[in-house]
Design goal:
39% of the residues lie in helices and 16% in strands. The protein has 16 helices and 13 strands.
Length: 424
């Protein structure tokens, strides 16, 4: 059986979307004759914990652990709340950042390049060099973020000339929060230099969207493959639909994912329709920024909010299946056109209609429309959004709010793993 070494930071009991991609690839790789060996930190500082995911780790996987020095663990002594938010990507609006948050962002961007897990690189290279040679490993995969893990791959490639595939779950220098890190000119240049070196030294790259592939093709001539995230068969019982007209947002609701057109549409529908006012509920599941909560309050929606906070992945899937409508919001910027949130794929198999809002020509818009699982709106389409919400509400009242999805099988985790196996 062919062996592959997968170097990842996020692994159960880590929660959140970052863990799902390789947890599922590892689950199915043995079906295609590949032995997965997973290298993870022994003492990580995860912003989200989901103990239930431990039961999903394949018993056919070999898991290696090595200690990591975690600056976020030190920073939590000064502000545990700010540390947790920043490490999970929730960056407050610049005008509302505290002095401690500003300092933390500057340090994060300029002293820890490419990120705060950079201290894991040297000990990992030493540990893995011996393991690779002793166990005849021919192929390694690094997955980021954190993109410092690609520096482990870079060093191992230069040292051992092992085949190296770099997997980018998100872009590096064009990801939404990168511009918020208060980078000096020198630091920004160093990020770009490392990004280019990783792309040009790796044997092949994997990205999760067509737009990211186009961006990377301007940096490197190495082969780039698009393997999106996907959905898996979830062991979740059939859920009775919510009795209320629930709009559910599942996942991190970042400061810049704050669609005024949605809040305004809901405010108007509540004012115009007494039945809508009686039955509407906004479910927030996951970390929600203060800026989003402030906007909800500004539009008089606070009394309609059911804020569940972070829950286990299994519970989140249950809510996806029983909520009346699912909300998918992406930041309105050029950089986020390439972002296809992992939850898109769980959403499209939930059999619930999706309301998606993001920048024009977003890659995830194509998935939603081509699978007939929802409707996409730009941040300028307020009236069309309001009309769609009301149409969904009328169908809800009649008991026939549903979707007829098509072409989903291409996004199954097993099919995607088969594509990966052919690269290996």
């Amino acid at each position: 059986m062919k062996k592959v070494l997968i170097i990842t930071y996020y692994w159960p009991p880590a929660g959140g979307p970052g863990v799902q991609r390789w947890l599922k690839f590892v689950k199915y790789l043995p079906d295609f004759g590949i032995q997965p060996i997973v290298y993870i930190p022994e003492n990580p500082t995860y912003p989200l914990i989901d103990e239930k995911l431990l039961s999903e780790v394949s018993d056919k996987a070999i898991v290696l652990k090595n200690k990591i020095i975690e600056p976020y663990a030190w920073a939590s002594f000064f502000s545990k709340k700010s540390t947790k938010k920043i490490s999970s990507g929730i960056i407050p609006n610049q005008k509302k950042q505290s002095f401690v948050q500003k300092i933390m962002l500057w340090v994060r961007g300029n002293l820890f390049i490419p990120d705060a897990r950079v201290f894991w690189v040297k000990p990992s290279v030493k540990f893995l060099s011996e393991y690779i040679q002793q166990n005849n490993i021919e192929t390694i995969i690094t997955t980021g973020p954190p993109h410092s893990l690609h520096l482990i791959g870079l060093a191992l490639k230069n040292k051992l000339n092992v085949k190296w595939i770099a997997d980018f779950r998100d872009p590096w220098t064009t990801i939404g929060y990168h511009s918020e890190l208060k980078l000096t000119k020198s630091s920004a240049s160093k990020h770009k230099k490392l990004e280019k070196e990783v792309m040009q030294t790796s044997d092949e790259l994997i990205v999760t969207s067509p737009t990211t592939k186009k961006e990377f093709e301007a940096i490197t001539s190495k082969p780039i493959h698009v393997i999106t995230n996907g959905y898996d068969s979830e062991n979740v019982k059939k859920q009775p639909l919510d009795e209320k007209f629930t709009l559910a947002h599942i996942g991190s609701f970042l400061s810049n994912r704050n669609p005024q057109i949605l809040w305004q549409s809901l405010q108007e529908l509540i004012a115009e329709n007494e039945e809508f006012k009686k039955t509407f509920e906004l479910k927030l599941i996951g970390a929600t920024s203060q800026e989003v909560m402030d906007a909800i309050s500004k539009f008089g929606l606070t009394d309609f909010v059911n804020n569940l906070g972070y829950i286990s992945h299994q519970e989140a899937v249950e809510h996806q299946r029983k909520s009346q409508v699912l909300l998918l919001i992406e930041i309105d910027s050029e950089e986020t056109k390439s972002i296809i949130p992992g939850k898109v794929f769980e959403y499209i198999v939930s059999e619930r209609p999706i309301i998606a809002i993001g920048p024009k020509d977003s890659d995830f818009a194509e998935i939603i429309t081509s699978t007939n699982t929802g409707a996409f709106f730009t941040y300028q389409e307020k009236e069309r959004l309001k009309t769609t919400l009301f149409n969904h509400f009328e169908k809800f009242l009649m008991g026939n709010l549903s979707v007829q999805a098509v072409g989903l099988q291409q996004y199954s985790r097993k099919n995607l793993t088969e594509t990966l196996s052919k690269l290996l």
